Amino acid sequence: MLLDPGMDLTLRPMRYPDFYERYRAAIRNTWTVEEVDLHTDLADLARMTAQERHLINRLVAFFATGDSIVANNLVLNLYQHVNAPEARLYLSRQLYEEAVHVQFYLTLLDTYLPDPEERVKAFAAVDHIPSIRDKAEFCFRWIDSINGIDRLESPGERRLFLLNLICFAACIEGLFFYGAFAYVYWFRSRGLLSGLATGTNWVFRDESMHMEFAFSVVDTVRAEEPELFDDELSAQVTRMIEEAVEAELAFARDLCGDGMPGMSVEQMRSYLQYVADQRLARLGMPARYGAANPFAFMELQDVQELANFFERRVSAYQVAVEGNVSFDETF
């Protein structure tokens, strides 16, 4: 079974071809930071209000370390315990994508914050900005929850692993990052920060694939070991998601203050609760909030975007990875 201890190295016969196809799809979605033109955003930043600049500075400070935290959990926990070589192919690709995201946010900070001291503060946000520190501590607590487990021998250990996996899929990539993306797309809906929005399109696509891969691992474990998915696990996941919503709401209060046209703490509350219910539904668990999505600009973000004529490159771009052509072939 997928969570059996060990390190299976055999790709044939392939036990989980869906994981391999996800790896191939990720390869087709390759992009590089050099393709994102952030310099077009500088004029927008220069004419923003002080409150808008505060929001952007806090947002990029969160981005500066968010993907590094995800990558650490992937290396320390997920790769060790998901025992299928085709799944580990995908996890290897995910680690590369997290590195690209880290590079993107490094470039973002270097462009948006020309003052070296401001950049240093942004990279140290987990130490001195309470709303970001609280989210980081939530992440670290779940990383540490299985750090000492070398082999998933017992049902209890497997449940702990599932909680870690669900936390990073549903709460961190599926809630913390989705909340951050909402601020980016709010600016885009006002015709601002098109460079940031372009790069975020590609990050959003990657993160959505990461989340769906993790949920497919959960689906596989549920099919193989249904006894792990009891009422206690459902209650633990619901409490975890409630805590993540509250942490992200504290971040929203920091960013939004008294609110701006089209972006307020109450709107973010509704959006985060709406997203949380989506994650619970994907896990086959009861909804918690019954909230609606207040942001029209986010309604199409869960599907691959159509080409934007004014973008330098469409976010749906894919790199071909299959097919051979010989020079004597008839065209």
Runs with pLDDT <50, length 5+? 302-314, 320-331
The CATH homologous superfamily is named: Ribonucleotide Reductase, subunit A
What percent of residues are in strands? under 5%
The gross shape turns out to be globular
- Output the number of helix runs: 11
* SSE pattern: HHHHHHHHHHH
What's the CATH architecture? Orthogonal Bundle
Rg, please?
20 Å
Q: How far from one another are the termini?
A: 47 Å
The main pleated sheet reads as: none
Domains counted in the coordinates: how many? 1
Percent range of helical residues: 55-70%
**At the first level of CATH, what is the class?**
Mainly Alpha
- Beta strands, count: 0
The overall pLDDT, averaged over residues, is 90
Helix- and strand-based class?
mainly alpha
Provide a descriptive summary of the structure in words:
The protein is an all-alpha fold and 331 residues long. The C terminus is likely disordered. The chain has eleven helices and no strands. The protein starts with 16 loop residues before the first helix and ends in a 49-residue tail after the last helix. The protein has a single domain, classed as Ribonucleotide Reductase, subunit A, CATH 1.10.620.20. α4 packs antiparallel against α9.
